[in-house]
Amino acid sequence: MLRFNVAEGIQSITRAHVNCYLIEDDEGITVVDAGLPRMWPELSEALEKIGRTSYEVKALILTHGHFDHVGFAVRMQREWQTPVYVHQDDASLAAHPYRYTPQRNRVVYPLFHPRSLPIIGGMAAAGALGVKGVSETRRFSSNEVVPVPGRPVALHTPGHTRGHCMFHLPDRGVMLTGDALVTLDPYTGQVGPQIVASAATQNTRETMDSLRILDEQASNILLPGHGEPWRQGTEAALRHAEAVGEH
């Protein structure tokens, strides 16, 4: 599914409840996250719909290195020669996107949350089980302005993974939250602002603590890695996430 202008100059691609985003400016396009492998045709379709070409895509930036965020990264790098950026603490995970230990067993967890089973099944059908990692990456550090179109500020929000980052676009009032804050948890099927379940998170307490950065970097629109855009601001999102808590 393609959605246009989810925020100023930002388009989204969604499949199997996994989101990727395109940030446009006069310098070109930055793609945020590479979703799942079978979302690749939709990226080309999105560019065509907005009158852009692959030559205008200057970078792919990753919120983190999990398999459902690096899906077509290698293909994009190989076919379009697009540089891939990731926080220095997630470079190893991006190269090996299945090599992480969540707080709880991710295999049995969905059995206790049956609403998640169709979501996880859809992700598998979109290629979630066959993702190739990306090892050739450019690294950025915490609070760095990434030198790509849109000039997003990388805000280190560890917990979901060691190097997870949100990307702040202060001039547009937008925060791309990745999986630090989602509005649909694929592992429970629960909707509304929250952290991702412990079945796919390294440390839920640390993830909750990392959300406090939203107090300092308020935004009107939050664009998550899973679920619908949140347009009620960071304060309401934090209240909801705290009410849901760790799970």
Description of the molecule:
The chain is an alpha/beta fold and 247 residues long. The protein has one domain: Ribonuclease Z/Hydroxyacylglutathione hydrolase-like (Metallo-beta-lactamase, Chain A, 4-Layer Sandwich), CATH 3.60.15. 22% of the residues lie in helices and 25% in strands. It is built from seven helices and 13 strands. It has a seven-stranded mixed β-sheet. Strands 8-9-10-13 form a four-stranded mixed β-sheet, with no helix packed on it. The mean pLDDT is 94.
The coarse overall form would be: globular
CATH topology: Metallo-beta-lactamase, Chain A
Strand content: 25-35%
Which percent bin holds the helix content? 10-25%
Major beta-sheet overview: 7 strands, mixed
- Number of H- or I-type helical stretches: 7
Q: Main attributes?
A:
alpha/beta, 7 helices, Metallo-beta-lactamase, Chain A, four-stranded mixed sheet, 247 residues
Structure, briefly:
The protein is an alpha/beta fold.
What's the layout of helices and strands?
Elements: E1 2-7, E2 10-15, E3 18-25, E4 28-32, H1 40-49, E5 57-61, H2 73-80, E6 84-87, H3 91-95, H4 117-125, E7 138-140, E8 153-156, E9 165-169, E10 174-178, E11 182-184, E12 191-194, H5 204-210, H6 213-216, E13 221-224, H7 233-244
Parallel strand pairs: 4-5, 5-6, 6-7, 10-13
Antiparallel strand pairs: 1-2, 2-3, 3-4, 8-9, 9-10, 11-12
